[in-house]
């Protein structure tokens, strides 16, 4: 496209708002200038993803990530930076995972692309070989329960394409990852294979946390890429002798020490009142944790940097928290909430970014009606930056614990969700999957929301 | 992110709308199902980009693209498919383009990554070597006009990052591409080099159409990648002997024959009233024309396919037009409008998609107030699919001619714009840059808008 267009002045950038909102509108525009003209958020993400990489709680990479966080928060101008200790689960993937179809046909079959689910037990070094029972759903499992014993249950539940808000597809399907192993173990299954939850057309398996019901034996659980899921399904239909050999060496070790990384701007009027803003520093081990949740970390740091760079002095203390362990335990968020309660801290607001560094569409939130009304009144200020949807209920997995402990009003950045499940928990969640401007607009809106909350909550 | 979530039913997918809108709401939801469950738009785009590739008006590839269009429209179920002949400009890039810094320092300097601007004359086979005058803007050019003679003018005008709607950055900067050559030639320049209009951080040069003012000599014009622009600028500051060698072999040949590719669903009540929906089939020669504008073509075809697949019988004739020549002439759009006027056709509405296949945010439009009021009343129906912004003024470059000739109400798909200028007119506008779901949601909204217009306009 070319278009015949005329030059325009930058002055037309300011949105049409009420007289009372004009000053705030100007501040938000300056925040946008500060963030969009500056590459700090993007370069921070590059360093985190490319020099640290994947960083599961308890891993050596996570210790490196904590040091990265301290450095980035100091560079952003935080008045204070410190670590908050907490115990975290220590799950390790172990050495080479593998899976393949074995069959009496003895034809060549390429290996299956799998990833053990987080928190899963392994098969042990010898691996296991068993016939496979494919089920389309839990209903299907129940119908076939007499056939389960001694088999690998293959949950071939399809991620739904119809939901426009793709987290609804996730909500619909994630129960198979969370509970699938124990529900199959109940009927004597020896392992499970889970069709990945993704819209992507390629073959990356998507891992993620699972848990066991203590009433049943713990059996190995792995995710499989879509193309391999289709291939396995097709093979099972035409080859009665087909079995699957599976080897995973993952194990859950004893809890270990982790840290929330915290940086603060001290409040100019009410230093003992807190506004929390954060993302989680941990990520799965198999990718760079770029969208999940390096993006949320660097956006939170960028919000703080924007305040400092503009010389804004918030009334309340703004506390950036890079949470220690969201993926397989939310222990960072739990510890933060527990200490806040123990210390009788006064928490005004908490904001999280953990839905990917995509172009913002709004904020979801959970707060009393009077606060929600204020939030909605800021729509004319936020919409010019893409934040048009402020209605939705929501909040983050980490700050949810603070909300639960103290009733703190909470919100979460709501980015466009179309591309999230292409990369979520898969090897392709890397720096290159994040667009600089989309990341920046999210950070800008977070800074703006904190600014408004600090003034009016 | 993991979230503790519960399974939900698909029934909650329907938006809250008035009683009167419930039936329409249901139809739009069915359209979304049809498009999101089906890969036709995406697979059509794959075929166009991967088997035809770049397709400048007048090129052999464009003839191949026309055949692709005929086939795709027939497969989508069009009642009639035909070609509409028009004359198109025939600009060819010619053989190898090259540029490098030459200097008395005789050190090794990597070549400069350039692309001739569309419609530009070439340097001829020998190329040209000249000193370079860097200017920051037209104001700067005027201030330095006495230094221009015999030199290559290097417009190092920076694409602004502050605009949230990135087409405003384009509008701000595109005048340098359009008029830069003649305004430099006026003072005796021998060629121009243009800093590319992009937010991308890499070194792809971005081409695009330019034109000459007949009052001045036609001089060669090329775009240069951002990293090379910075490198050239830095070299000029520290090396007085630095010149640039430039060779381009492009030329404008005689006009040749092209075609708009047209497919129709015949109106069930008013077959002589037309609703036009289209994108442009031509693209620049150096990429696959995926976002610009393969996306618009396959979305338009998908809108037609959706009507047919759902058995919807529109009252008016829906006419999908794949325009012959947008990039360097809009001759396809001109011809279409000219014939419509000549034949006294009654055009109810025209819709274009030519701003990339990104996640939709709304539609821009130009139409009388009563029609605009109707459009705005459909917001509750369209917003669940991401179309929240229906206020903006706009319309497409191709359908703009129809609007001008007949006053036809027009609208353009308004997708998210953050990533567009990473790929616009550059070698990386390829199939892989398009996200399947983002493309599909745009197509679904286009089908929905046509459905509503057909009922209520």
Description:
Two copies of one chain form a homodimer. With 457 residues, chain A is an alpha/beta fold. The first copy, chain A, folds into two domains: 18-91 and 254-456, 3-Layer(aba) Sandwich (Aminopeptidase); 94-249, Glucose Oxidase, domain 1 (3-Layer(bba) Sandwich), CATH 3.50.30.30. Chain A has 13 helices and 14 strands. Chain A has helices at 22-36, 40-52, 60-76, 138-143, 167-185, 226-238, 290-310, 331-342, 369-377, 379-382, 399-406, 420-423, 436-456; strands at 80-92, 98-102, 114-116, 128-135, 152-155, 191-195, 221-224, 243-247, 251-265, 270-280, 316-323, 346-352, 360-366, 410-415. Chain A has a seven-stranded mixed sheet with strand order 1-9-11-10-12-14-13, sandwiched between helices. In chain A, strand 4, helix 4 and strand 5 form a beta-alpha-beta unit. In chain A, helix 2 (40-52) packs antiparallel against helix 3 and helix 7 (290-310) crosses helix 13. The longest helix of chain A has 21 residues, at 290-310. Chain A is elongated and about 75 Å long. The model of chain A is unreliable at 4-12 (pLDDT under 50). At the A-B interface, helix 1, helix 5 and helix 13 of A face helix 1, helix 5 and helix 13 of B. Chains A, B: This is Carboxypeptidase Q. Chains A, B: Homodimer. The monomeric form is inactive while the homodimer is active. Chains A, B: Residues 260-440 form the Peptidase M28 domain. Chains A, B: GO terms for molecular function: carboxypeptidase activity; metal ion binding; metallodipeptidase activity. Chains A, B: One of its GO terms (cellular component) is extracellular region.
């Amino acid at each position: 496209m070319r278009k015949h267009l005329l030059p325009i002045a930058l002055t037309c950038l300011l949105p049409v708002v009420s007289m009372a909102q004009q000053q705030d509108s100007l501040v938000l525009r300056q925040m946008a200038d500060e963030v969009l003209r500056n590459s700090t958020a993007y370069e921070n993400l590059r360093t985190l993803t490319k020099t640290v990489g994947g960083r599961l709680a308890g891993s050596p990479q996570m210790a490196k990530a904590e040091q990265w966080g301290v450095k980035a928060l100091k560079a952003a101008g935080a008045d204070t930076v410190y670590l908050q200790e907490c115990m975290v689960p220590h799950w390790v993937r172990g050495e080479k995972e593998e899976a393949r179809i074995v069959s009496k046909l003895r034809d060549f079959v390429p290996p299956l692309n799998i990833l053990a689910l987080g928190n899963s037990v392994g098969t042990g070094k010898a691996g296991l070989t068993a016939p496979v029972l494919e089920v389309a759903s839990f209903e299907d499992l129940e119908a076939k329960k007499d056939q389960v014993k001694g088999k690998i249950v293959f949950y071939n539940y399809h991620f739904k394409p119809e939901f426009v808000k793709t987290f609804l597809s996730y909500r619909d399907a994630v129960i198979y990852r969370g509970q699938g192993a124990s529900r199959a173990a109940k009927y004597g299954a020896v392992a499970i294979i889970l069709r990945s939850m993704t819209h992507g057309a390629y073959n990356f398996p998507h891992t993620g946390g699972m848990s066991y019901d203590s009433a049943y034996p713990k059996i190995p659980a792995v995710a499989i890429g879509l193309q391999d899921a289709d291939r396995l399904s097709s093979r099972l239909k035409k080859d009665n002798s087909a079995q699957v050999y599976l080897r995973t060496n993952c194990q859950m070790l004893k809890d270990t020490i982790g840290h929330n990384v915290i940086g603060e701007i001290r409040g100019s009027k009410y230093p003992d009142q807190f506004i929390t803003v954060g993302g989680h520093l941990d990520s799965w081990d198999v990718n760079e944790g770029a969208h999940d949740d390096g993006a949320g970390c660097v956006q939170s740091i960028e919000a703080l940097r924007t305040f400092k760079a503009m010389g804004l002095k918030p009334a309340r203390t703004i506390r950036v928290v890079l949470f220690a362990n969201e993926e397989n335990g939310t222990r960072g968020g739990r510890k933060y909430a527990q200490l806040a309660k123990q210390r009788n801290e006064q928490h005004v607001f908490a904001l999280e970014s953990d839905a990917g560094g995509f172009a913002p569409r709004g904020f979801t939130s959970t707060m009393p009606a009077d606060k929600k009304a204020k939030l909605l009144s800021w729509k004319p200020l936020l919409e010019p930056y893409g934040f048009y949807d402020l209605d939705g209920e929501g909040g983050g997995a980490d700050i949810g614990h603070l909300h639960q402990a103290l009733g703190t009003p909470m919100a979460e950045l709501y980015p466009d969700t179309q591309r999230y499940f292409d990369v979520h928990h898969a090897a392709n969640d890397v720096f290159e999957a994040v667009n600089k401007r989309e990341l920046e607009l999210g950070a800008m809106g977070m800074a703006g929301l904190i600014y408004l909350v600090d003034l009016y909550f």
